Known about the structure:
By secondary structure, this protein is mostly beta strands. The protein has 2 domains: about 10-165, no CATH class; about 170-300, Sandwich (Immunoglobulin-like). Helices cover about 0% and strands about 45% of the residues. The chain has no helices and 22 strands. The protein has strands spanning about 10, 25, 35-45, 70-80, 85-90, 100-105, 105-115, 125, 135, 145-155, 165, 170-180, 185-195, 195-200, 205, 210-215, 225-235, 240-250, 255-260, 270-275, 285-290, 300. The strands form 5 sheets. It has a 6-stranded antiparallel β-sheet with strand order 2-5-4-7-10-11, with no helix packed on it. The protein has a 5-stranded mixed β-sheet with strand order 17-12-20-21-22, with no helix packed on it. The chain is elongated and about 75 Å long.
Amino acid sequence: xxxxxxxxxxxxxxxxxxxxxxxxxxxxxxxxxxxxxxxxxxxxxxxxxxxxxxxxxxxxxxxxxxxxxxxxxxxxxxxxxxxxxxxxxxxxxxxxxxxxxxxxxxxxxxxxxxxxxxxxxxxxxxxxxxxxxxxxxxxxxxxxxxxxxxxxxxxxxxxxxxxxxxxxxxxxxxxxxxxxxxxxxxxxxxxxxxxxxxxxxxxxxxxxxxxxxxxxxxxxxxxxxxxxxxxxxxxxxxxxxxxxxxxxxxxxxxxxxxxxxxxxxxxxxxxxxxxxxxxxxxxxxxxxxxxxxxxxxxxxxxx
Length: 303
């Protein structure tokens, strides 16, 4: 398993962000007359060896896909009282995506990095003025979330520091061992997840319960094929249940319930079984649950 590394180097010069591609704001609550020191965060992907990824931003993400894992980056700076002094948002359309140039007055700061695979709405960041209440909202099964919080002390010189963004969520995959029958028009895979992330603690907010689901409508060309469906999952702290509902044009099909499903950060959970035959009363609901430390590798445990 090869990890993608997000290396953030500290150096020089302040970039002024404008237009729709980048957004920044400054709320400097400290002495503005003192000398400032350059702090530059630069993404360096030159040492990445895995899968020839094209993205400038790299992480610890385990993936067998060539799709860039990062589509948007948030940079938040808090002073030693926990108050926001600077924020910046970038996406892949930004001219300097992955390069953050800033200047700090001497002092101790907390720097928070958050990134996703999608161009998340800046408005999904709430209560940013105080780190204790800051969070990301609106998370769902389509969002791949990465995060890191670091402490920086600026005294009388620039600082060089490496930072690795960690993937927060896991991924849930349903794989059918039987083929899609002609009478089934839709499948829905439902489970409980969470929609918010606490930026200070670096934890999923378990008070933000979300009824999430993967849904796929079938076409005539899908008949006779095996099914595979993926979703990112923020329910990473305790076992949960998954229900599978198939809709038929000709008969009533009972739901399938799978218990003791576990998702973990940066790991893939595979649910494998007879998805369509198990929905018939004469079949037993037997599913194999696999938890793998890599999106592309598998280690199997039967329940």
